Each structure stands twice: as C-alpha cells, then as structure tokens.
Amino acid sequence: MEAVMNYKTxxxxxxxxxxxxxxxxxxxxxxxxxxxxxYIATHGEGRWNSLARCAGLKRTGKSCRLRWLNYLRxxxxxxxxxxxxxxxxxxxxxxxxxxxxxxxxxxxxxxxxEIKNYWRTRVQKHAKQLKCDxxxxxxxxxxxxxxxxxxxxxxxxxxxxxxxxxAYGCSNRAGGLVTACPVQPEPSTESSGVTQLSYSTxxxxxxxxxxxxxxxxxxxxxxxxxxxxxVPSPVGLGYDNFELPELDFQGTCxxxxxxxxxxxxxxxxxxxxxx
DNA sequence: AACCATCTCAACCGCACCATG
DNA sequence: TCATGGTGCGGTTGAGATGGT
Length: 275
Known about the structure:
Strand order of the largest sheet: 1-2
Number of helices: 10
Helix content: 40-55%
C-alpha cells in the first residue's frame, strides 16, 4: 500500500513546494525502515530534519523521529504490558497524570505512545465498564483498592510459581530478544531514589467490619530489584473467607473474559458493594 | 460468507518550549 | 528582543484486525 498524500500548505517557493509535495505520509514501508535504520546505525541520531533529508527519506524529521523512537529502536520492547508494568503505570499515572513520557522513563523499552494507548484502551475501558469517569474518585478508589492489589497478587502468584520472572524477555519489532531488563533506576528525579507503592486493602463489609483490614507498603527501591523482593509479604486482601454470592452475569460485561482477565467475580461483587 | 461493531495501535497534528542567530 | 527552526509532548485519528451476528 502506497498511501502517498501531499501536504496542503501554501507554497513559498518553487523549491519548497516541490520538496513539500514529495513528502510522504502514512504507514512506513520496509524500505523506508531500512533506510532509516541504516542511516542511524552509520551516522547516529542527529537533527531529525536534516537526518531525513540526508538519508533521502521523503519524510518529515518529526515522522522519522517518531518512527525511530516508537518502533525501530532496537531496545523497544514488544509484547503485552506485564502486570508489573501495569502496576507501575497505574501508580505513576496516579502521581503524575497524563505525563506519558515521564511515566515511560520508568518502563524501559516502552514508549510514551504505547503507555498512552494502554491507558486509553484498557484503563479507560474498565472505567467505562464501571460507568464512571477515569479521573473520578470512584474509579481511583477501585484502582487503588482492587485493581492494584489484584495486580500485586498476580505478580506474586506468578513469581512464586517460578524462580525466574516471566515478565521480562519480550521480543522487539525486529524479532530479536530484548535482554531481560527490570525497571532501571530513575536518574535522580525522586528525592530519595525510593518510590513507595502503598496499597491499603479495600474497605468492605466482607468480614463484618468496615475498617481497613490491613495495609501493605511496598518499597520499590530504584525499581531495580526482583519483584519477589518488592512484594515481601501477603497483601492481605481480605478475600479469604469471602463467600461469593449468587450473581447473574447474563447480559453484563462481567461474565466475560475481559482480555487480561483482570476482574474476577469477587471483584465484581466488591465493586458493586462500594460504588 | 458477509456485514457490522468494536478494539488496537501506528502515525499524525497542534502546541509549547528551547536554542540559535 | 525578536524571528525562526528543531524538538518533545499530549491529544486525536483512522486503517487494519478481531469478534459477533
């Protein structure tokens, strides 16, 4: 597919007009990818506009930059967002909001674009299913008290099942294996270099009490340690004695596999109680 | 098989900021 | 100080993929 489109701009000179008319937009071809990869391998990254010209690419510098950073870079991680990464995204988004590039700095190999897409497609979808705004207190409470502890639970379960985490070792676009790479230390943006992920367990009446059942604080020192160490003790979700009520899931989204299998029947019940 | 709805994600756009002359 | 060009970021779009009927 050669979706060649011209920019509709006011020509300022015949040369510029010709140059602008030659610019390509839309999906990149394999040939263009190879040209860009080879040029950067030889000359390195530089000024993107001049790079685009010198490489002979009929693309804007912006387009080249985006293609390289989001797709062609050898250290771009591919594959599903892992529970660990989901947890980090939720935590960091709660702290910084839509600062995608800043969040991406804490997820090596993940691009701001990918995280942004994840948020918009997955997280906002869950908010929609709960019939609340993604920025509402309700949804934030669900995230903090259900979703994030659930992720911690899943991470711990996965880690207890095998000594080596399966969370890392994704392949990149080129099909190569990206070296296992736990989250790297943040370059001195946090004052202490220590980030805390704090989860209090849900306030429910599951066991006849409305008080917080317990609380865990996870010390994420530099994000660099194995998750087995990050999650040192049971979170104490308080579901142990939980009896699942009879629920009719017909005609609701809750009986379906939500792709990531994020919400369980217990979640549904708890959310219904709290919202 | 065909059609439609929904989802995913690569790519683009507009804007703000910064460096340079 | 101002104009210009380059870069980065967040928001948005739309083509292709996928699933349901």
